[in-house]
Amino acid sequence: MHLPDHEFVKPATLADSLALLRSASGEIKLIAGGTDVVYNMRGRLFQPDILLSVRDLAELQGVADTTAGGIRIGAGIRLTDLEHEPRVAAYPALVTAGRAVASRHVRNMATLGGNLCLDTRCWYTNQTAEWRQAKGPCLKNGVAVCHAIKSASVCVALNASDIAPALIALNADITLANVDGERRLPLTDFYTDDGVTHTIRDADELLVAIDLPAPSGRTVFIKETARKGNDFSYAVIAAGGEVAGQRVTGLRIVLGCLTTRPLSLQEPVRIIETRGLTDEAIDVAAAAARDELGPLTNLYTPAAYKSSLARSLVRQALRELRDATP
Amino acid sequence: MTTKRQVMTLTVNGDSHELLVSPRQTLLDVIRGQLGLTGTKEGCATGTCGVCTINNDNGEAFLSCITPALEWDGKAITTIEGLEAGGKLAAIQQAFIDYGAVQCGFCTPGVIMSAQGIVNTLDDPSEDDINDGMAGVLCRCTGHIKVKEAIRNVAKYKS
Ligand SMILES: Cc1cc2nc3c(=O)[nH]c(=O)nc-3n(C[C@H](O)[C@H](O)[C@H](O)COP(=O)(O)OP(=O)(O)OC[C@H]3O[C@@H](n4cnc5c(N)ncnc54)[C@H](O)[C@@H]3O)c2cc1C
């Protein structure tokens, strides 16, 4: 099946792209690696008037040192290049998360920026257009109906990015640009609890860079999925902190792919920071994670499974954080 | 809105083509429909099965079914038809024959172009590298055992 009709444009510079984003009439969709956009166009979930390609923009490439001792990664970096970038090796959770995405084939196309802006996914919407015809459109198509959770008034599609939780656990900032200038914010503030407008990106903005602070402490990343290769996750977890024996400070624990926004856990962090990384405290923290997840009825696996998955991932991540050789 | 066709240039297996292409076409549509190179197959058309795999200008494997054709304006690709040179099969093709890495053959072009992606980018691929390079392409008949044997032994065929 051919892609839906649209106009394809590929400005030569970032400035031209931003100008077009501001001035274009009709719905405009950015495309980088295209591994999510084209998939969604084939399923008729996206039917933009214009596709604006940022794939080859030089301004979105490269990794540079920052004055703060960290690094700035261009949003257009391919995931394959991210794996091989020497500066990124100082952030093992990011390398592991990047490698966990899809397949080599997909990573040879996909970009980091595209991964962070990846559309949310739902067991109902992410079917073929023909399949969806039986029940019809939903909140994702501007109709006030949810077929995934009958009573939902806000879209409950889930964040599907493997890398966002890792970057949040690494305290990453992102920079968005439009013709007027740039704004920088913590990546965790980029996401919302609405599966339709799942990021705060304005329609005329482009994600240009990701900033990481100087590497410090330990970080871990774990992905759970049906197959080892080429599959979206049931859940991922990333954790990081300054670990000294059983004491940990600056702890972050982020669960991904279970909720509409990557979920930074609060109570489990408090428990571990007060009680330390003992086996008992880890079990208590893992049990507490469930309360912060909200309803778990959307997507592919039963709620009971996801609930116990979240618990065991928290336990596993905290043990790895404690036991990893520094 | 009516489709706005654009002229693009695309180098396929060393030959340069000037093509009139609609935004609705993927690279796969152009390769098969417009250039008549039907070695590359369409399977799932959503990036999951890998049978549409071709190589980019760095020799890396990627998926033609989820690549808008116009993205590749000015670039080069290699398809299964481009592996053979001067009547001689590429090392990976001969290895596939000798190690019996083919059954019905439908996925074979995509499987071989995935394997060729490994050959092109790594001198001495480890078992992990081979798994990594082949996880994105599926064979429903014969599985990956024979395929991996062929890839492990491809060095023998390089002249
Ligand atoms: C078979 C298959 C398996 C997959 N498995 C996984 C997986 O395991 N884990 C995972 O995380 N993902 C997975 N994906 C999804 C996707 O491949 C990745 O998330 C990929 O990183 C998306 O990057 P891209 O450059 O291809 O994005 P694109 O498809 O180009 O874009 C994705 C979204 O981001 C927006 N966008 C892109 N660049 C920018 C920018 N610079 N500024 C603002 N918005 C932008 C686009 O408008 C679009 O909405 C899978 C996809 C497929 C087809």
Explain this structure.
The complex is a heterodimer of chains A (326) and B (159). With 326 residues, chain A is α+β, with helices and mostly antiparallel strands. Among the domains of chain A are: 114 residues, Uridine Diphospho-n-acetylenolpyruvylglucosamine Reductase, domain 3; 106 residues, Enolase-like, domain 1. Helix content of chain A is 29%, strand content 20%. Chain A contains 11 helices and 12 strands. Chain A has a 5-stranded antiparallel β-sheet with strand order 4-5-8-6-7. In chain A, helix 9 runs antiparallel to helix 10 and helix 10 packs antiparallel against helix 11. The longest helix of chain A is centred in the last third of the chain and has 21 residues. The termini of chain A are far apart. By secondary structure, chain B is of the alpha+beta class. Chain B folds into 2 domains: 77 residues, Beta-grasp domain (Ubiquitin-like (UB roll), Roll); 67 residues, Orthogonal Bundle (DNA polymerase, domain 1), CATH 1.10.150.120. Chain B is 29% helix and 14% strand. Chain B is built from 5 helices and 5 strands; from the N terminus they run ββαβββαααα. A 3-stranded mixed β-sheet of chain B has the order 2-1-5, with no helix packed on it. In chain B, a hairpin with a 2-residue loop joins strand 1 and strand 2. In chain B, helix 2 crosses helix 5. The longest helix of chain B has 14 residues. Classes of the chains: A alpha+beta (326), B alpha+beta (159). Chains A and B meet through helix 2 and helix 5 of A and strand 4 and helix 4 of B. The structure holds flavin-adenine dinucleotide.
Give descriptors for this structure.
heterodimer; A: 326 residues; alpha+beta; Uridine Diphospho-n-acetylenolpyruvylglucosamine Reductase, domain 3; Enolase-like, domain 1; five-stranded antiparallel beta sheet; four-stranded antiparallel beta sheet; 11 helices; B: 159 residues; Ubiquitin-like (UB roll); DNA polymerase, domain 1; 2 domains; three-stranded mixed beta sheet; two-stranded antiparallel ribbon; 5 helices; 14% strand; globular; binds flavin-adenine dinucleotide
